[in-house]
Amino acid sequence: MIRTLLILVFASVVAVSQVVTPALPNTDSVVTCFPDTTGYARLTVGSNGRMFTDLQSAIDAAQLGTVIVVDADQVTEGTIVLRKKDVGSGWIIIMPSTINALPNQGLRISPTMASVMPRFVTTNTAGHPAVRTESGAHHYRLIGIEITADEKVQESYGLVFLGDNGPAQTTLEEVPHHLIIDRCYIHGHTNGTVMKFGVRLDCANAAIIDSYISDFHSIGFDAQAIAGVNGPGPFKIINNYLEASGENIMFGGGAPSIPNLVPSDIEIRQNHMYKPLTWRVSDATYAGKHWTIKNLFELKTGRRVLLDGNTLENSWADLPIGQSGYAILLTVRAEGGKAPQADVSDVTITNNIVRNVGAGITISGSDDIPSTRSSRILIANNLFTNINGPAFGDGNVSGPNDGTFLKIGNPENVSVVGNTIEQTGPITWAFKPTSGFVFTKNVANCFRSAGGYQGIYGPGKAEGDGTIQHYFPDITDANRRFSDNVLIGGNASRYTEFGPMSKNVFPTSAVGVDPSLGLQRDVLDSAFARKIVCEATTSTVEHASATPHTWIQPQPASDHLLITTVYYGNSTYHLVDATGRTVLQGEFVASPALINISSLATGTYVIRMISGSTIETRTLSILR
Question: What is the pLDDT, as a whole number, of residue 544?
Answer without folding.
Answer: 33
